[in-house]
Amino acid sequence: MTQENNTPIALTALQKRVAREVIAYVRHERLPVGHHLAESHLARALNTSRTPVKFVLNHLAERGMLRHDRNRGFFLARAADDLNDLVLEIAAAEENSVYLKFVELRLSRQLPEHLGEIDLMREFGVSRTELRSVLLRMQQEGWAEQRSGQGWRLLPVIDSIEAYEESFSFRVTIEPAGLLSPTFQVDQKVLALCRQQQEYIAATGYLSMTTQELFEANSKFHEILAGFSGNRFLLQSLKRLNGLRRLVEYSVDLPRPTRRKQVLEHLQILDLIERGDRLGAADRLRAHLEGARRNKLNPALLERLGLQSED
After folding, report:
1. Do the Cβ atoms of 98 and 130 come closer than 8 Å?
2. 224, 194 Cβ separation under 8 angstroms
3. What is the C-alpha to C-alpha distance for residues 25 and 14, in angstroms, rounded to an integer?
4. What tens digit of pLDDT does each residue of 193-243 get?
5. Residue ranges of the chain assigned to CATH 1.10.10.10
6. Cα dihedral 268/232/235/23 (nearest 10)
7. Which end of the chain is less enclosed by CB atoms within 10 A, N or C?
8. In this structure, which topology does domain 97-154 adopt according to CATH?
9. How many whole angstroms separate alpha carbon 21 and alpha carbon 172?
10. Residue that wins the pLDDT comparison between 255 and 175
């Protein structure tokens, strides 16, 4: 799996994404050294096939993160807190990826509504395999769809100040309501794992985690609460919105103290839920979302993101 000069073989776009998600999974779950990482479990957790997972596990074993036993599989060889170098390495590899070029062009409205694979292969200088992995990721995140025999079509995304603000307004409407749903039921095991992750981020994780990792952890927190609502449509709506937010918020680098304050608010919401005070939790969640809206809808940040008004 290495070249003759002993440098690692370059990962494909899909493999880079899976590698990032495997590392993020280890860090989020606070897995201990020696933990067994099963291919089948990771494939389910990351919603991908076992083929790229297996390749990535071998790659991470070569990078020293994992230990491979031929008869038993892969085991974590480095502590979750000791993976910053690999996180930065994968992030740097993704900086010039075809996916991020698509994101940049989409947010700046430089892509046509309908896309043909042959034209895209020529424009980006990539193989059909690499291009399709990117297009399928876009489809999974909810901002592209495949048209039968007619290429691909782009779907609406958060590409303006108005759309960004509307996304927060929608969340303020549905998320607190989910906590007050008559079908609301807490999964204590899930809640405990959620608290563990949030406490780690509040303690030290917010200092070392990448913007992408922090976004994914934040999205997971809100989706867990939506899942407790027992309303499948609420959860599906939030997951789709988070997929669209991802395009913008991977670039939102808030000050670290602000990130920590948001996580402390998450823990306050969990405290209220554990005490059975769902009304208080809903009010705190509403205030939390309004605070996030104020932090992110400021002129300086919007200018850095390149979001403009629709007028």
Report:
1. yes
2. yes
3. 16
4. 899 889 989 998 888 788 888 888 999 999 999 999 999 999 999 998 988
5. 13-92, 97-154
6. 100
7. C
8. Arc Repressor Mutant, subunit A (1.10.10)
9. 28
10. 175
